[in-house]
Amino acid sequence: MGRRILGIVLLVVAISIAIMTPVLAFTPMGGNLLSRLAGATPTATPSPTPLSPTPTPAPPKPILTVVGTPPALQVGAAYLLDNDTGHTLDDFHGEVPLPMASTTKIMTAVIAIEAGNLDQVITIQQDAPNEVNNNNGSSARLQVGDQITLKDLLYALLLPSGDDAAIAIADGISGNTQSFVKVMNIFAYRLHLFQTHYINPDGLTYYSAANTPLPENYTTAYDLLRLTQYAMKLPLFAGIVKTTEYRLAPGPHHHGYTWTTTNSLLAYARPFSVSSS
User: Fold this and answer.
1) 127 φ, ψ to 5°?
2) Residues 70-101: pLDDT tens digits?
3) How far apart are CA 186 and CA 115, in angstroms?
4) Burial 224-253 (b: 16+ CB within 10 A, else e)
5) If we measure between CA atoms, which residue out of 153, 155, 147 comes closest to residue 167?
6) How far apart (Å, rounded) are the C-alpha atoms in residues 158 and 274?
7) Which active-site residues does the annotation give?
8) 92-276 homologous superfamily
9) pTM for the full model?
10) Phi-psi map region of 231: left, alpha, beta (phi>0 left; psi -120 to 50 alpha)
């Protein structure tokens, strides 16, 4: 009985060897296995690529904080922000709608830069000086009939705060002030200035037939801050508002002009004058 079992085992081993020999000899897997059994050097496993070192994060910008008691404000509203971090330093009636006066011209300039053609030549119409004379406005002293580029008119708008320049820009871009004001309010909505509304491009106070101020030209300190942040990202706007004086030489189609800034804060800065032919 034992011999019979041994014989069966030997027969199974012989059959297995007969089957495995072709596999070992003629297949890639078998060849690799035989090489390993014969002492061949196994293929080296590639080393993992070392990870790049994690860059050291930049230190956070320090957050300014108010120390002590802020001075009393002689204004209806104010909003003070750290422009680097977005941290609010002071909010005094920042969400209260108030008349915005000549800061209206910030939106007029933004639209001119973003939607207008700076090389467009605009002819000064009679409605430009009329706006100044009828409403006791500030003037760039534009002469009716002069043909001035939109870019030059931006200096007339923002340096002497020319109400006549605002009207000329509105006429040049939209054909009339009413159409331009519609664009201003659309821009305000797109910029999420939901507590801002315009009735003219210069900020002058208009009066009703009963001689009462029309209340529809308003903004908040917070909206005005956000609009100014947006405007200061426009290189041309930022360059104009830091200019103390702009000279436009006389040309074949316009008089010569010199416009000086009304921003008294620039009196403490280095003078920055620009000339144009």
Assistant:
1) -65, -20
2) 778 888 999 988 888 888 888 999 999 999 99
3) 12
4) bbbbbebbeeeeebeebbebbbbebeeeee
5) 153
6) 14
7) 102, 105, 161
8) DD-peptidase/beta-lactamase superfamily (3.40.710.10)
9) 0.75
10) alpha
